[in-house]
């Protein structure tokens, strides 16, 4: 009977199931974060490059205007 009780307790124990839920949830959040960074990074690089170009042009024009 003792072995049967041990098996029933093991079957009814849900501590491991909660851990699995948290692992799956964490993996989903990390995956979503990676997807967002991958999607946004190309646009950010383009925007930063455009800003650098515009600032360079503005500085050149300002230097010419002071001469």
TrEMBL record:
- Would you tell me the protein name for this molecule? Pilus assembly protein
Organism taxonomic ancestry: Bacteria, Pseudomonadati, Pseudomonadota, Alphaproteobacteria, Rhodobacterales
